[in-house]
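To illustrate the input format used throughout this study, we show a single complete record. The first block contains the structure-token representation of the backbone; no residue identities are included at this stage. The design step must infer an amino acid for every position from geometry alone.
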């Protein structure tokens, strides 16, 4: 073979490889829409009057989220793609002695390679397909049919922007039904296609839906740019205020909450904040003085779903002290790009890729905050111990059903942490399921039918763990 011919062949092969790589990156590794289709949904049997009486029975006698998940998963498991290893439910996450199960051993996965394309191509692809690709702060996200933007007062002159879709009957009148609040992932906004897809799907299936942009997010940041995002320290009480505002609307019966990634952490903290005592050691005293106090509850009584929570937040803070490349850790690199973009957009002193440094600079813009709030805030949002730090078993206080949904091949938040978190937890109203696949928040790309069926049934007033007796539903709807 002549050198010229060899060069032509190699050049052609390089072009083909480049084209294939471009196709791979632009398709498999880019955000996509996964609409909630009615044909994909499967419904579990309605709760009986005995098991559904969650509003009147003593806590010890109520049907908890764990019992509900066992039954619902048995009905829906056929919607999962075939896999050699079954999903793990709450009771599978610890052994007979209460020790956490070996999650990676069960799924035959090497946790040391889950952050690499070679070791976890599917998980990273599903993550990319479900992640938001654009930021909408200078202008609102494109309009959604059937939704309107609303501003919700949460105290102290602050209002949060939300996109509200009201479910209506065939005559166009609003239904009297539950409203599900949807939180994006870390620093996301209502431009995330996943949020739009879920909100539209819930509305089409008889729920009101509110896609919320908290302080430091989307249009809320645009209008209230001087108000610091505190990563949960103050936002948790504001979420309770959102629930109270919604339930004051005549067409809204109860509220539910679903969050993704860091939004999932917000959701878990909200379930704790709703049920905790006034003297809970998880709340630093100086921080308590700034927090909005909850009104009458329970809040988010229809339930709370946390998809891919980052349970060891301090581990993530520590990891981002180093600078990661797309080749070494594509998910950390994407996370740090998000942190850096925020620092640049906000005009901070440095374009940091450190999460700890961003926390500090976020806090510094707000004169209402005090020196030391970053450390107090980390204590408040802590869900698991890190390097021997004190941990408060926060979810023992949850009084509304809580469901944690995770994937074994999550490249950002290791699935083993779910077992470590759940093993000592005794609250029957907190359940968890670890699926064999789905990456980080990529449940719709992996198993659209299972994912949408699970959350639709979970929030259902007829079928969910917080089901309302038929007589009470009829009375709320005016006897219809």
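Output of the design step:
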């Amino acid at each position: 073979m002549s050198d010229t011919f060899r060069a032509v062949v190699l050049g052609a092969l390089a072009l083909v490889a480049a084209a294939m790589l471009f196709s791979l990156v632009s398709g498999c590794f880019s955000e996509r829409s996964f609409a909630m289709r009615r044909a994909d949904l499967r419904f579990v049997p309605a709760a009986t009057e005995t098991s559904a009486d969650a509003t009147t029975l003593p806590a010890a006698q109520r049907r908890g989220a764990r019992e509900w998940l066992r039954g619902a998963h048995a009905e829906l498991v056929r919607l999962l793609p075939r896999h050699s290893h079954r999903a793990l439910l709450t009771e599978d996450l610890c052994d007979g002695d209460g020790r956490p199960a070996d999650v990676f051993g069960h799924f035959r996965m090497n946790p040391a390679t889950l952050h690499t394309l070679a070791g976890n191509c599917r998980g990273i692809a599903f993550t990319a397909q479900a992640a938001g690709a654009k930021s909408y702060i200078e202008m609102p996200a494109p309009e959604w049919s059937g939704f309107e933007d609303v501003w919700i007062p949460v105290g102290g002159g602050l209002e949060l922007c939300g996109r509200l879709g009201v479910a209506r009957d065939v005559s166009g009148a609003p239904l009297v039904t539950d409203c599900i609040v949807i939180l994006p992932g870390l620093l996301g906004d209502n431009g995330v296609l996943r949020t739009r897809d879920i909100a539209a799907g819930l509305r089409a299936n008889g729920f009101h839906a509110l896609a919320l942009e908290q302080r430091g997010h989307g249009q809320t940041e645009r209008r209230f740019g001087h108000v610091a995002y505190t990563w949960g320290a103050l936002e948790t009480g504001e979420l309770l205020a959102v629930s109270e505002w919604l339930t004051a609307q005549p067409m809204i019966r109860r509220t539910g909450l679903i969050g993704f990634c860091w939004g999932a952490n917000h959701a878990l903290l909200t379930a704790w904040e709703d049920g905790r005592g006034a003297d809970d050691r998880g709340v630093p005293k100086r921080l308590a003085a700034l927090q909005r106090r909850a009104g009458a509850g329970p809040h988010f009584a229809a339930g709370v779903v946390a998809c891919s929570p980052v349970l060891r937040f301090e581990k993530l803070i520590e990891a981002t002290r180093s600078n990661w490349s797309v080749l070494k850790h594509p998910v950390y690199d994407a996370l740090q790009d998000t942190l850096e973009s925020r620092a640049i957009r906000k005009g901070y002193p440095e374009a940091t890729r450190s999460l700890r440094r961003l926390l500090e600079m976020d806090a510094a813009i707000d004169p209402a905050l005090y020196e030391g709030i970053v450390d107090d805030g980390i204590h408040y949002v802590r869900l698991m111990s890190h390097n021997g730090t004190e941990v408060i078993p926060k979810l023992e206080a949850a009084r509304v059903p809580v469901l944690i949904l995770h994937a074994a091949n999550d490249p950002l938040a290791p699935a083993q942490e779910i077992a470590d978190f759940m093993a000592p937890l005794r609250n029957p109203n907190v359940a968890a399921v670890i699926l064999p696949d789905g990456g980080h928040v990529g449940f719709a790309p992996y198993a659209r039918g299972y994912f949408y069926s699970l959350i639709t049934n979970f929030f259902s007033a007829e079928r969910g763990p917080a089901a309302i007796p038929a007589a009470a539903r009829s009375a709320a709807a005016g006897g219809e």
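Structural context for interpreting the output: Residues 129-476 form a domain with the Rossmann fold fold (CATH 3.40.50.1820). The longest helix spans residues 3-27.
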